[in-house]
Amino acid sequence: MENSNEEAFNEEVYRYYEENKPDLSKVVTIAFIGKVSSGKSSLINAFFERGRDDAIAKVGATSGVTTEVKFFKLNENVYIVDSPGLDDIKKENSEATERFLESIDIAIFVVSGSADKTQKVNFSGVKYKIPDTLFVLNKKDDFDDLDESGVDDVVTQWKTSVGVDQVFQTCAKGYDPKSRKDIPLRIEGVDALKAHVYKILSEKKKDILLKKSMKDKRSAAISIAVTATLSAAGSSFIPASTVYITGIQMTALSSLVYLYTGEVLDKKSIVTIMFSMLGQNVGKSIFIFFASMFPGVDAVGAVVAATVTAAMLAAAISFLESGKSLNDAAGFNDMYKKTYSTVKSMLNVKDMTSEGFIERLFNKLV
Protein backbone atom coordinates (compact mmCIF):
# COMPACT_ATOMS: atom_id res chain seq x y z
CA MET A 1 0.00 0.00 0.00
CA GLU A 2 1.32 3.47 -0.90
CA ASN A 3 1.17 5.90 2.02
CA SER A 4 0.39 8.69 -0.46
CA ASN A 5 -2.88 7.02 -1.26
CA GLU A 6 -4.96 8.55 1.53
CA GLU A 7 -8.13 6.61 0.76
CA ALA A 8 -6.38 3.24 0.77
CA PHE A 9 -4.50 4.22 3.92
CA ASN A 10 -7.72 5.13 5.73
CA GLU A 11 -9.37 1.87 4.70
CA GLU A 12 -6.44 -0.17 5.98
CA VAL A 13 -6.29 1.74 9.27
CA TYR A 14 -10.03 1.39 9.84
CA ARG A 15 -9.85 -2.30 9.05
CA TYR A 16 -7.04 -2.76 11.58
CA TYR A 17 -8.97 -0.80 14.18
CA GLU A 18 -12.18 -2.77 13.69
CA GLU A 19 -10.28 -6.06 13.99
CA ASN A 20 -8.36 -5.07 17.11
CA LYS A 21 -10.60 -2.74 19.10
CA PRO A 22 -12.07 -4.13 22.34
CA ASP A 23 -15.61 -5.47 22.19
CA LEU A 24 -17.38 -3.39 24.84
CA SER A 25 -20.52 -5.51 24.57
CA LYS A 26 -18.78 -8.53 26.10
CA VAL A 27 -18.89 -9.70 29.71
CA VAL A 28 -16.02 -10.69 32.00
CA THR A 29 -16.62 -13.38 34.61
CA ILE A 30 -13.96 -14.24 37.19
CA ALA A 31 -14.33 -17.10 39.67
CA PHE A 32 -12.49 -17.08 42.99
CA ILE A 33 -12.39 -20.67 44.22
CA GLY A 34 -11.05 -21.90 47.54
CA LYS A 35 -11.81 -22.79 51.13
CA VAL A 36 -13.25 -20.16 53.44
CA SER A 37 -10.01 -20.25 55.43
CA SER A 38 -7.99 -19.27 52.35
CA GLY A 39 -8.91 -15.61 52.71
CA LYS A 40 -10.91 -15.31 49.49
CA SER A 41 -13.03 -12.42 50.73
CA SER A 42 -9.99 -10.34 51.55
CA LEU A 43 -8.33 -11.17 48.25
CA ILE A 44 -11.45 -10.32 46.24
CA ASN A 45 -11.76 -6.93 47.92
CA ALA A 46 -8.06 -6.18 47.46
CA PHE A 47 -8.13 -7.32 43.83
CA PHE A 48 -11.05 -5.02 43.01
CA GLU A 49 -9.58 -2.17 45.08
CA ARG A 50 -12.32 -2.19 47.68
CA GLY A 51 -11.81 -1.28 51.32
CA ARG A 52 -13.58 -2.63 54.38
CA ASP A 53 -16.34 -0.06 54.06
CA ASP A 54 -17.22 -0.82 50.43
CA ALA A 55 -16.59 -4.56 50.21
CA ILE A 56 -17.65 -6.46 47.11
CA ALA A 57 -20.33 -8.30 49.12
CA LYS A 58 -22.16 -5.00 49.52
CA VAL A 59 -22.50 -4.56 45.76
CA GLY A 60 -25.41 -6.98 45.68
CA ALA A 61 -25.70 -10.64 44.83
CA THR A 62 -27.70 -12.00 41.93
CA SER A 63 -30.41 -14.60 42.22
CA GLY A 64 -29.47 -18.16 43.08
CA VAL A 65 -27.26 -17.38 46.06
CA THR A 66 -26.65 -19.99 48.75
CA THR A 67 -24.51 -19.90 51.87
CA GLU A 68 -21.77 -21.63 49.86
CA VAL A 69 -21.70 -19.95 46.46
CA LYS A 70 -22.05 -16.23 45.82
CA PHE A 71 -22.55 -14.55 42.46
CA PHE A 72 -21.89 -10.81 42.25
CA LYS A 73 -22.70 -8.38 39.48
CA LEU A 74 -20.08 -5.65 39.79
CA ASN A 75 -21.50 -3.77 36.80
CA GLU A 76 -23.05 -4.54 33.42
CA ASN A 77 -19.81 -6.05 32.13
CA VAL A 78 -18.14 -7.70 35.13
CA TYR A 79 -19.36 -10.65 37.20
CA ILE A 80 -17.68 -12.41 40.11
CA VAL A 81 -18.17 -15.94 41.41
CA ASP A 82 -17.08 -16.77 44.97
CA SER A 83 -17.18 -20.51 45.68
CA PRO A 84 -15.46 -23.19 47.78
CA GLY A 85 -15.18 -25.34 44.66
CA LEU A 86 -16.46 -26.02 41.19
CA ASP A 87 -18.81 -28.76 42.42
CA ASP A 88 -20.51 -26.25 44.68
CA ILE A 89 -21.29 -24.06 41.69
CA LYS A 90 -22.75 -27.02 39.81
CA LYS A 91 -25.01 -27.88 42.78
CA GLU A 92 -26.86 -24.62 42.23
CA ASN A 93 -28.44 -26.34 39.22
CA SER A 94 -30.18 -23.25 37.99
CA GLU A 95 -30.29 -21.52 34.64
CA ALA A 96 -28.43 -18.54 36.04
CA THR A 97 -25.71 -20.81 37.42
CA GLU A 98 -25.27 -22.55 34.08
CA ARG A 99 -24.79 -19.20 32.38
CA PHE A 100 -22.21 -18.19 34.96
CA LEU A 101 -20.33 -21.47 34.60
CA GLU A 102 -20.24 -21.27 30.83
CA SER A 103 -19.08 -17.67 30.84
CA ILE A 104 -16.23 -17.92 33.36
CA ASP A 105 -13.15 -16.41 31.73
CA ILE A 106 -10.64 -16.95 34.51
CA ALA A 107 -10.59 -18.97 37.71
CA ILE A 108 -8.39 -17.87 40.60
CA PHE A 109 -7.77 -20.91 42.79
CA VAL A 110 -6.91 -19.68 46.28
CA VAL A 111 -5.08 -21.62 49.00
CA SER A 112 -3.19 -20.72 52.16
CA GLY A 113 -0.76 -22.31 54.58
CA SER A 114 1.35 -25.41 53.98
CA ALA A 115 0.98 -27.65 50.94
CA ASP A 116 -2.09 -29.88 50.90
CA LYS A 117 -2.06 -32.81 48.45
CA THR A 118 -5.85 -33.12 48.62
CA GLN A 119 -6.10 -29.83 46.72
CA LYS A 120 -4.64 -31.45 43.59
CA VAL A 121 -7.94 -33.08 42.65
CA ASN A 122 -9.84 -29.85 43.27
CA PHE A 123 -7.40 -27.76 41.26
CA SER A 124 -7.24 -30.26 38.39
CA GLY A 125 -11.04 -30.29 38.16
CA VAL A 126 -11.20 -26.52 37.95
CA LYS A 127 -8.33 -26.36 35.46
CA TYR A 128 -10.05 -28.94 33.26
CA LYS A 129 -13.28 -26.91 33.09
CA ILE A 130 -11.61 -23.50 33.05
CA PRO A 131 -8.27 -23.60 31.19
CA ASP A 132 -7.28 -20.10 32.32
CA THR A 133 -6.95 -21.01 36.00
CA LEU A 134 -4.36 -19.26 38.17
CA PHE A 135 -3.00 -20.73 41.41
CA VAL A 136 -2.69 -18.30 44.32
CA LEU A 137 -1.00 -18.85 47.67
CA ASN A 138 -2.76 -16.25 49.79
CA LYS A 139 -2.00 -15.05 53.33
CA LYS A 140 1.65 -14.63 52.50
CA ASP A 141 2.01 -12.85 55.82
CA ASP A 142 1.64 -16.22 57.57
CA PHE A 143 5.24 -16.88 56.55
CA ASP A 144 6.70 -13.66 57.93
CA ASP A 145 8.77 -15.62 60.45
CA LEU A 146 10.44 -17.67 57.71
CA ASP A 147 13.51 -16.55 55.80
CA GLU A 148 13.39 -16.33 52.01
CA SER A 149 14.54 -19.92 51.52
CA GLY A 150 11.80 -21.12 53.86
CA VAL A 151 9.12 -19.35 51.83
CA ASP A 152 10.63 -20.77 48.64
CA ASP A 153 10.35 -24.25 50.14
CA VAL A 154 6.64 -23.74 50.85
CA VAL A 155 6.03 -22.54 47.29
CA THR A 156 7.98 -25.49 45.87
CA GLN A 157 5.95 -27.91 47.98
CA TRP A 158 2.71 -26.44 46.61
CA LYS A 159 4.00 -26.69 43.04
CA THR A 160 4.90 -30.33 43.57
CA SER A 161 1.78 -31.40 45.45
CA VAL A 162 -0.70 -29.69 43.13
CA GLY A 163 1.24 -29.87 39.88
CA VAL A 164 1.49 -26.21 38.91
CA ASP A 165 4.32 -24.25 37.33
CA GLN A 166 3.43 -20.82 38.68
CA VAL A 167 2.29 -19.80 42.14
CA PHE A 168 1.16 -16.22 42.77
CA GLN A 169 1.92 -15.20 46.36
CA THR A 170 -0.49 -12.63 47.79
CA CYS A 171 -1.37 -10.89 51.01
CA ALA A 172 -4.61 -8.97 51.54
CA LYS A 173 -4.61 -8.60 55.30
CA GLY A 174 -7.32 -6.33 56.68
CA TYR A 175 -9.45 -6.29 53.52
CA ASP A 176 -12.09 -8.59 54.96
CA PRO A 177 -15.12 -6.45 55.97
CA LYS A 178 -15.19 -8.38 59.25
CA SER A 179 -11.64 -7.35 60.12
CA ARG A 180 -11.09 -5.06 63.08
CA LYS A 181 -10.92 -1.42 62.04
CA ASP A 182 -7.61 -0.93 63.83
CA ILE A 183 -5.83 -3.56 61.71
CA PRO A 184 -3.74 -1.77 59.06
CA LEU A 185 -4.33 -2.77 55.44
CA ARG A 186 -1.52 -4.81 53.93
CA ILE A 187 -1.48 -5.77 50.27
CA GLU A 188 1.26 -7.68 48.46
CA GLY A 189 1.43 -9.56 45.18
CA VAL A 190 -2.04 -8.52 44.04
CA ASP A 191 -0.74 -6.23 41.30
CA ALA A 192 1.26 -9.09 39.78
CA LEU A 193 -1.82 -11.31 39.87
CA LYS A 194 -3.94 -8.57 38.33
CA ALA A 195 -1.39 -7.96 35.57
CA HIS A 196 -1.56 -11.63 34.58
CA VAL A 197 -5.35 -11.52 34.57
CA TYR A 198 -5.22 -8.46 32.29
CA LYS A 199 -2.84 -10.30 29.98
CA ILE A 200 -5.23 -13.23 29.62
CA LEU A 201 -8.22 -10.96 29.08
CA SER A 202 -6.36 -8.85 26.52
CA GLU A 203 -6.15 -11.92 24.29
CA LYS A 204 -9.95 -12.02 24.44
CA LYS A 205 -10.19 -8.23 23.95
CA LYS A 206 -11.85 -7.95 27.34
CA ASP A 207 -9.16 -6.41 29.56
CA ILE A 208 -10.57 -2.88 29.24
CA LEU A 209 -13.88 -4.07 30.72
CA LEU A 210 -12.15 -5.18 33.92
CA LYS A 211 -9.91 -2.12 34.04
CA LYS A 212 -12.99 0.12 33.81
CA SER A 213 -14.24 -1.53 37.02
CA MET A 214 -11.18 -0.50 39.02
CA LYS A 215 -11.02 2.61 41.18
CA ASP A 216 -7.42 3.32 40.22
CA LYS A 217 -7.85 4.43 36.63
CA ARG A 218 -4.32 5.84 36.35
CA SER A 219 -2.58 2.48 36.75
CA ALA A 220 -4.92 0.88 34.23
CA ALA A 221 -4.40 3.78 31.82
CA ILE A 222 -0.63 3.51 32.07
CA SER A 223 -0.78 -0.21 31.31
CA ILE A 224 -2.79 0.55 28.16
CA ALA A 225 -0.33 3.26 27.12
CA VAL A 226 2.78 1.14 27.79
CA THR A 227 1.42 -1.76 25.73
CA ALA A 228 0.47 0.56 22.86
CA THR A 229 3.84 2.35 22.86
CA LEU A 230 5.81 -0.89 22.77
CA SER A 231 3.50 -2.27 20.07
CA ALA A 232 3.93 0.88 17.97
CA ALA A 233 7.70 0.67 18.25
CA GLY A 234 7.66 -3.00 17.30
CA SER A 235 5.34 -2.39 14.36
CA SER A 236 7.79 0.09 12.83
CA PHE A 237 9.93 -2.81 11.65
CA ILE A 238 7.27 -4.34 9.40
CA PRO A 239 5.93 -3.26 5.97
CA ALA A 240 3.07 -0.73 5.97
CA SER A 241 4.04 0.14 9.52
CA THR A 242 2.14 3.44 9.52
CA VAL A 243 -1.15 1.55 9.19
CA TYR A 244 -0.46 -0.56 12.25
CA ILE A 245 0.96 2.30 14.30
CA THR A 246 -2.04 4.53 13.59
CA GLY A 247 -4.42 1.66 14.32
CA ILE A 248 -2.65 0.99 17.61
CA GLN A 249 -2.94 4.65 18.58
CA MET A 250 -6.64 4.74 17.70
CA THR A 251 -7.35 1.62 19.74
CA ALA A 252 -5.44 2.94 22.75
CA LEU A 253 -7.13 6.36 22.62
CA SER A 254 -10.61 4.86 22.41
CA SER A 255 -9.78 2.56 25.34
CA LEU A 256 -8.58 5.48 27.46
CA VAL A 257 -11.73 7.49 26.77
CA TYR A 258 -13.90 4.49 27.68
CA LEU A 259 -11.83 3.81 30.80
CA TYR A 260 -12.32 7.31 32.21
CA THR A 261 -15.72 8.32 30.87
CA GLY A 262 -17.52 5.15 29.78
CA GLU A 263 -18.07 6.82 26.40
CA VAL A 264 -17.75 4.65 23.30
CA LEU A 265 -16.27 6.68 20.42
CA ASP A 266 -16.68 5.76 16.78
CA LYS A 267 -13.58 5.67 14.58
CA LYS A 268 -14.23 9.05 12.95
CA SER A 269 -14.45 10.73 16.35
CA ILE A 270 -11.12 9.21 17.33
CA VAL A 271 -9.45 10.36 14.11
CA THR A 272 -10.83 13.87 14.65
CA ILE A 273 -9.29 13.93 18.12
CA MET A 274 -5.95 12.71 16.77
CA PHE A 275 -5.75 15.35 14.04
CA SER A 276 -6.88 18.19 16.29
CA MET A 277 -4.31 17.10 18.84
CA LEU A 278 -1.50 17.23 16.29
CA GLY A 279 -2.26 20.81 15.27
CA GLN A 280 0.99 22.50 14.28
CA ASN A 281 2.89 19.30 14.93
CA VAL A 282 1.59 17.53 11.83
CA GLY A 283 5.07 17.78 10.30
CA LYS A 284 6.59 16.18 13.37
CA SER A 285 4.20 13.26 13.17
CA ILE A 286 4.09 12.78 9.41
CA PHE A 287 5.92 9.47 9.86
CA ILE A 288 2.88 8.11 11.64
CA PHE A 289 0.27 9.19 9.13
CA PHE A 290 1.52 9.72 5.60
CA ALA A 291 5.28 10.07 5.09
CA SER A 292 7.14 7.71 2.85
CA MET A 293 10.54 9.24 3.64
CA PHE A 294 10.87 7.05 6.74
CA PRO A 295 11.47 3.40 5.79
CA GLY A 296 9.97 2.18 9.07
CA VAL A 297 12.43 -0.67 9.27
CA ASP A 298 15.18 0.67 11.50
CA ALA A 299 15.80 1.81 15.05
CA VAL A 300 15.21 5.47 14.18
CA GLY A 301 11.70 4.64 12.99
CA ALA A 302 11.01 2.71 16.18
CA VAL A 303 12.06 5.63 18.37
CA VAL A 304 9.90 8.08 16.40
CA ALA A 305 6.91 5.73 16.60
CA ALA A 306 7.41 5.27 20.34
CA THR A 307 7.93 8.99 20.94
CA VAL A 308 4.79 10.13 19.14
CA THR A 309 2.66 7.35 20.64
CA ALA A 310 3.95 7.92 24.18
CA ALA A 311 3.42 11.68 23.92
CA MET A 312 -0.08 11.25 22.51
CA LEU A 313 -1.21 8.80 25.19
CA ALA A 314 0.53 10.53 28.10
CA ALA A 315 -1.15 13.80 27.11
CA ALA A 316 -4.50 12.01 26.86
CA ILE A 317 -4.11 10.41 30.30
CA SER A 318 -3.14 13.73 31.89
CA PHE A 319 -6.16 15.40 30.29
CA LEU A 320 -8.60 12.67 31.29
CA GLU A 321 -7.17 12.40 34.81
CA SER A 322 -7.97 16.09 35.32
CA GLY A 323 -11.54 15.58 34.11
CA LYS A 324 -11.05 17.41 30.82
CA SER A 325 -12.43 16.32 27.46
CA LEU A 326 -10.16 15.38 24.56
CA ASN A 327 -12.50 17.45 22.39
CA ASP A 328 -10.76 20.54 23.80
CA ALA A 329 -8.55 20.68 20.72
CA ALA A 330 -6.48 23.71 21.70
CA GLY A 331 -5.80 22.49 25.22
CA PHE A 332 -5.07 18.95 24.11
CA ASN A 333 -2.75 20.19 21.36
CA ASP A 334 -0.85 22.32 23.86
CA MET A 335 -0.55 19.38 26.25
CA TYR A 336 0.67 17.14 23.43
CA LYS A 337 3.35 19.59 22.31
CA LYS A 338 4.75 19.92 25.82
CA THR A 339 4.64 16.18 26.38
CA TYR A 340 6.21 15.46 22.98
CA SER A 341 9.18 17.70 23.77
CA THR A 342 9.67 15.98 27.11
CA VAL A 343 9.43 12.47 25.67
CA LYS A 344 11.75 13.31 22.78
CA SER A 345 14.43 14.47 25.22
CA MET A 346 14.10 11.32 27.34
CA LEU A 347 13.67 8.52 24.80
CA ASN A 348 16.44 6.84 22.82
CA VAL A 349 17.16 3.41 21.35
CA LYS A 350 19.14 2.18 24.34
CA ASP A 351 16.60 3.24 26.97
CA MET A 352 13.62 2.08 24.93
CA THR A 353 14.91 -1.50 24.93
CA SER A 354 15.59 -1.45 28.66
CA GLU A 355 13.06 -3.55 30.57
CA GLY A 356 10.53 -1.42 32.43
CA PHE A 357 11.77 1.89 31.00
CA ILE A 358 8.56 2.77 29.13
CA GLU A 359 6.47 2.14 32.25
CA ARG A 360 8.81 4.32 34.33
CA LEU A 361 8.58 6.98 31.63
CA PHE A 362 4.79 7.11 31.83
CA ASN A 363 4.88 7.24 35.62
CA LYS A 364 7.02 10.37 35.31
CA LEU A 365 4.85 11.91 32.60
CA VAL A 366 1.45 11.45 34.26
Features:
single chain, alpha/beta, two-stranded antiparallel ribbon, Rossmann fold, elongated, 366 residues, 16 helices, six-stranded mixed β-sheet
Protein model, in words:
By secondary structure, this protein is an alpha/beta fold. It folds into two domains: 6-23 and 213-365, no CATH class; 28-202, P-loop containing nucleotide triphosphate hydrolases (Rossmann fold), CATH 3.40.50.300. It contains 16 helices and eight strands. The chain has a six-stranded mixed β-sheet, sandwiched between helices. The chain has a two-stranded antiparallel ribbon with strand order 7-8. α5 links the parallel β4 (106-112) and β5. α1 packs across α10, α9 runs antiparallel to α13 (299-321) and α10 (241-261) packs parallel to α13 (299-321). The longest helix is centred in the C-terminal third of the chain and has 23 residues, at 299-321. Residues 63-67 and 280-300 have low confidence and may be disordered.
How many domains in all? 2
- Quaternary: single chain
| Shape designation | elongated
Residue stretches low in confidence (pLDDT < 50, at least 5 long) are 63-67, 280-300
- Helix vs. strand class: alpha/beta
What share of residues is helical?
A: 40-55%
Just name the CATH architecture of the largest domain.
Answer: 3-Layer(aba) Sandwich
- What's the CATH class label of the largest domain? Alpha Beta
Query: What is the string of SSEs from the N terminus onward?
Result: HEHEEHHEHEHEEEHHHHHHHHHH
| Beta-strand share of residues | 5-15%
Number of distinct beta strands: 8
N- to C-terminal distance: 36 Å
The radius of gyration computed from the alpha-carbon positions, rounded to a whole number of angstroms, is 23 Å
